[in-house]
Every structure is written in structure tokens, then in C-alpha cells.
Amino acid sequence: MTNEATLRRGQTCWHLNESVGSIAINFLLTKYYSRRPNYLTIVEMVHDTTLKMRSAQWLDLLAAKSKDFRSFDMEFYKEVVRLKTSHFGFFLPMASALVMVIVALEHANPQQRNILLENHGRQNQEQVEIVKTIFAELKIEEYFRIILTLSRRNIEKSVARTP
């Protein structure tokens, strides 16, 4: 959304769906977290990540339009990559556990879904254990282990193809 892209990894961006639009992030936050005690913390993390990503997008565009590349070095590039990808792609989802709970909600049966909605994001240790139990039943950790393994393999293949 920040760079007005229409595709991500070869697929139409989610925010371009007619029923979603520019409210994509707010929709998810409101739908799954608005009644949670950590709602404000999650909203602040999203805002912080959005600011970092937009800053990196601006730096990226600045570099692309520049005729003088003497001031753009590997450190500049690494900072742009870090800001554009690591916060949005790794920090935010893991810090907020958005990825895990969304995957769990997608795979849960109605009873598990209700239990997750009642207990996720709570500080009470009993509720944390309930969520962990549902995650174990749904094999969420195994799912993410497979995703990370496949991602690592794809990155390694890309690096190996680089001249």
C-alpha cells in the first residue's frame, strides 16, 4: 500500500480486493484485537513499523532518482532493506503474534476459534497455556518451521543464482 504496488510476490495485493481497500490493516486490527488489553500496543507497533517502512521507501525512491551514486553505499542499502523488510516482514508479525494467531484462526474449528478469541493476547498464564494448547493441536509451530525452511531454501537458491 505504501508504494502503491499492485502485486506482491506475483500475486494481487490483498488491499486491492474490493471489500478491503485502504482499510486493510485497520480492518485486521479492529476485527481481531480491538477488545484486547494489548490493542494499543499493537496499534503503536503497526504505526512505528509503517513509519519505518515509509521512510525506507522514501530513501529507496531518492536513490533511484539520484544521478550521483557516490553517497549510496552498502550501508545505505542495508539500512533501506532493514527498514523496508525486517520490521514489517519479521518484527511486527512476531512481536504481535499476528501471523501465528491469524493462521490458527484460519485453521481452527469453531470451538477452537472461540477459545482463541477469548484467550489470545491475555497476560493471565492460564489463558496463555490455553492458547499454546490450541496452537499445538493445530501444529502451528510445525507450520511455521516448514515456512521458514522453504523461505531459507528459496533465499539460498536466489543467492546461488546471483553472479
Automatic annotation (TrEMBL):
Keywords: Magnesium, Membrane, Metal-binding, Transferase, Transmembrane, Transmembrane helix. It comes from Allacma fusca. Pfam families: polyprenyl_synt. InterPro entries: FPS1-like, Polyprenyl_synt. Its cofactor is Mg(2+). The lineage of its organism: Eukaryota, Metazoa, Ecdysozoa, Arthropoda, Hexapoda. This is Uncharacterized protein. Pathway: Pheromone biosynthesis. One of its GO terms (biological process) is farnesyl diphosphate biosynthetic process. It comes from the Eukaryota. The chain crosses the membrane at residues 88-105. One of its GO terms (molecular function) is metal ion binding. GO terms for cellular component: cytoplasm.
